């Protein structure tokens, strides 16, 4: 039956739209599995519109698309989305098209999978037909919970499309023969429902039945379990998993080879690693700690000097910081790999001749020639949570039978819960795995094949170029990852930890770092590039009143808004300016009240009070969620409570920003408060109020910029 299907039709078009590489990785997995099913996936980035043409496409189309920002399609899909949203296209424009779509998103954000939903809805409006139900994968609980079964079912759906297509071409007798064989052999039809990712019968490289291999290993792990370890952990399983035969992913074929060269030459400039825009290397001229030492989170404000560049921005924009991996972690990884002496050697990465990987190509984020340490420092996300395909590859690099079995469990269908709990939710990275499984000795080419690109980190501007020409300020919390059983060491965020270390001399100057004038002579520089925000800006009409809601460091972009508004008021005294409201919340008044009182570096920031006194800010409402109160009527603890209390929704323009760890609940809480007030003020039920809020969003009068 399989061969007959393959003879009928083989090719399908596979498009992906990715922001950080997830959608591309899943598309590559689909392409790899397609070969095992006798199918050929013609894979392209959705932005490569010169390499495919949906207007004339006759084969089925599979689309994998992520979501970025506040529900936008990824940058790589912008041109495609703009093209299909052309209002002059007729409703039967894609009537010939059959497609299946897999959307990726995070339900902690308001517009879950909106990138995929936008494309899906528009294709439907233009007459395209589903040959397979749309899948929406949630990164909040684990993409694999939807991705794996969606891919499993894709192959049968594609086979059916090919059979129907051939039937339309007049080969009904051939189809009848196939149908008869399916009816006469239901067990074969059942096999179509098996995951193509899973190989029940054999491990490719060992050429034996996997169930036999894993059952044999079961003896070793069961002995460990019976010794009194009743709780599972990263390195240990318990029944029933420890006694189960496993369905494990197919072994990904290796496709790269790494050749060590000499130690002579120069590494590429960081700008060559970025394709999204022009990079600028700018000095950090000021660093201020905005919270007390005993605050739960440490917030820093950095000031960059952009005077000698053409970098421009508006308040509300964001920008990217190019950051390296932690130097100690890179050295530790080199040591474990036995490559400590090779760090400064230049390496050449090439596609391996004869590789079985379909469409194997040199990774775009790996320089043609650079040192090994440069690759591990600037190119690869060594903190990335390992995907199951990576775990499957690590199995073959592990010599201890018990460790090998546990890695097989963690990447298996039966071990999905353990993977989620001990790897994904625990934020385990490659270093953690190599410590936990010391007999695992992966090759360098394996790391380059499986570790994703080190992404630049995005931050919101908290200043105004009009108010402070040549300066760019931003605020961030230093991200902390606490130690846990699966990861015995605590870590700081890749970028925030690096920035904090970089500006430490500015935060805690010593006599050696001060020049004769009392200033700091540090000239540390960072590389940045623009990430324009086309919607999160001040209203074009200055007379329109607006509200701002910013818990925690979410207040920082609004400082830029208010600075900009203050400068406009000074320069245009004849203009009419609308009222401005700022709702701000933090945990403790004496520890976390950002931009109120900062004694560090003898610098006092009292901007909010200044904005109130000069009329730039009309109303300031502040609440503290963790402070106790002895008042007879307790003050509101959260910004949504203050909004409800004040009933301040008589405006037609809202700006709403969240920069908070619990992004879903805070975002939902404020939205719920707005709905409640709309319902009360406009005397409508909650459903109607939600429709009004949706209308405001559509008209860009209620804006969200939600980041974790």
3D architecture notes:
The chain has 708 residues and is an alpha/beta fold. Among the domains are: 10-167, Flavodoxin domain (Rossmann fold); 546-706, 3-Layer(aba) Sandwich (Rossmann fold). The protein is 34% helix and 18% strand. The chain is built from 23 helices and 24 strands. The strands form 6 sheets. Strands 1, 2, 3, 4, 5 and 6 form a 6-stranded parallel β-sheet that branches. Helix 4 (114-125) links the parallel strand 4 (98-105) and strand 5 (129-130). Helix 8 crosses helix 12, helix 11 (388-395) packs antiparallel against helix 12 (401-410) and helix 21 runs parallel beside helix 22. It is globular. The two termini are 49 Å apart. The model is unreliable at 1-9, 177-228, 511-521, 588-605, 648-653 and 656-662 (pLDDT under 50).
Topology:
Layout: H1 2-8, E1 11-17, H2 22-36, E2 40-45, E3 61-65, H3 78-84, E4 98-105, H4 114-125, E5 129-130, E6 135-138, H5 144-168, H6 172-184, H7 186-191, E7 198-199, H8 210-226, E8 248-249, E9 256-260, E10 279-289, E11 299-305, E12 318-322, H9 327-336, E13 346-351, E14 369-371, H10 372-379, H11 388-395, H12 401-410, H13 416-424, H14 430-436, H15 444-450, E15 457-460, E16 471-477, E17 480-481, E18 491-492, H16 494-502, H17 504-507, E19 525-531, E20 546-549, H18 556-571, E21 580-586, H19 589-592, H20 607-613, E22 619-624, H21 639-646, E23 654-659, H22 663-682, H23 686-698, E24 702-707
Parallel strand pairs: 1-2, 1-3, 3-4, 4-5, 4-6, 20-21, 20-23, 21-22, 23-24
Antiparallel strand pairs: 7-8, 9-13, 10-11, 10-19, 11-16, 12-15, 12-19, 13-14, 17-18
């Amino acid at each position: 039956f399989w061969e007959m299907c393959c003879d009928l039709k083989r090719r399908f078009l596979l498009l992906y739209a990715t922001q950080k590489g997830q959608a591309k990785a899943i598309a590559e997995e689909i392409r790899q599995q397609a070969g095992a099913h006798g199918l050929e996936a013609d894979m392209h980035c959705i932005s490569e519109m010169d390499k495919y043409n949906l207007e004339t496409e006759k084969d089925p189309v599979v689309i994998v698309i992520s979501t970025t920002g506040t529900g936008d399609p990824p940058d790589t899909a912008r041109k495609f989305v703009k093209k299909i949203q052309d209002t002059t296209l007729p409703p039967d424009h894609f009537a010939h098209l059959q497609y299946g779509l897999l959307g990726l998103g995070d339900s902690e954000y308001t517009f879950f999978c909106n990138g995929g939903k936008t494309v899906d809805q528009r294709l439907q409006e233009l007459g395209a037909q589903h040959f397979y139900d749309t899948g929406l994968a949630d990164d909040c609980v684990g993409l694999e919970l939807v991705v794996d079964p969606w891919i499993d079912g894709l192959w049968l759906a594609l086979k059916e499309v090919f059979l129907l297509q051939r039937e339309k071409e007049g080969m009904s007798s051939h189809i009848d023969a196939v149908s008869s064989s399916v009816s006469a052999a239901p067990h074969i039809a059942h096999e179509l429902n098996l995951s193509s990712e899973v190989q029940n019968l054999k491990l490719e490289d060992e050429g034996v039945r996997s169930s036999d291999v894993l059952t044999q290993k079961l003896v070793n792990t069961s002995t460990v379990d019976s010794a009194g370890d009743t709780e599972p952990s990263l390195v240990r399983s318990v029944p029933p998993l420890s006694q189960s035969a496993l369905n494990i992913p197919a072994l990904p074929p290796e496709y790269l080879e790494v050749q060590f060269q000499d130690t002579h030459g120069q590494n590429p400039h960081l700008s060559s690693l970025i394709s999204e825009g022009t990079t600028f290397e700018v000095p950090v001229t000021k660093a201020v700690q905005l919270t007390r030492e005993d605050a739960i989170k440490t917030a820093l404000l950095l000031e960059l000097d952009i005077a000698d560049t053409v970098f421009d921005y508006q308040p509300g924009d964001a920008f990217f910081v190019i950051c390296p991996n932690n130097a100690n972690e890179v050295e530790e990884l080199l040591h474990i790999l036995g490559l400590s002496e090779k760090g400064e050697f230049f390496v050449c990465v090439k596609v391996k001749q004869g590789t079985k990987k379909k469409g194997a190509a040199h990774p775009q984020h790996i320089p043609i020639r650079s040192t090994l340490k440069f690759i591990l420092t600037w190119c690869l996300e060594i903190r990335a949570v390992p995907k199951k395909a990576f775990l499957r590859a690590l199995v073959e690099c592990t010599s201890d039978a018990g460790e090998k079995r546990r890695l097989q469990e963690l990447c298996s269908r039966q071990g999905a819960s353990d993977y989620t709990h001990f790897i994904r939710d625990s934020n385990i990275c490659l270093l953690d795995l190599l410590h936990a499984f010391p007999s695992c000795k992966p090759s360098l080419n394996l790391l380059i094949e499986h570790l994703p690109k080190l992404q630049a980190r995005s931050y919101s501007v908290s200043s105004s170029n009009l108010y402070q020409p040549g300066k760019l300020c931003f605020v961030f919390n230093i991200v902390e990852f606490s130690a846990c059983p699966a990861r015995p060491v605590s870590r700081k965020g890749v970028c925030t930890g690096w920035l904090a270390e970089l500006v430490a001399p500015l935060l805690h100057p010593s006599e050696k770092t001060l020049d004769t004038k009392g200033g700091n002579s540090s000239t540390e520089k960072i590389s940045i590039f623009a990430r324009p925000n086309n919607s999160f800006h001040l209203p074009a009409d200055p007379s329109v009143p607006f509200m701002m809601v910013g818990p925690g460091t979410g207040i920082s972009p609004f400082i830029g808004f208010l600075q900009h508004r203050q400068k406009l008021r000074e320069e245009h005294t004849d203009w009419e300016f609308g009222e401005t409201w700022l709702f701000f919340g933090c945990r403790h008044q004496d520890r976390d009240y950002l931009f109120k009182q900062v004694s560090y570096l003898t610098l006092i920031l009292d901007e909010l009070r200044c904005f109130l006194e000069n009329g730039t800010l009309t109303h300031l409402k502040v609440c503290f969620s963790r402070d106790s109160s002895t008042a007879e009527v307790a003050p509101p603890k959260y910004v949504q409570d203050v909004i409800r209390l004040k009933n301040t929704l008589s405006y037609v323009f809202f700006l709403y920003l969240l920069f908070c760890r619990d992004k879903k609940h805070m975002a939902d809480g404020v939205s719920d408060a707005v709905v409640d007030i709309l319902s009360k003020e406009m005397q409508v039920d909650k459903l109607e109020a939600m429709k009004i809020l949706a209308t405001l969003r559509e008209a860009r009068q209620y804006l969200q910029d939600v980041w974790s």
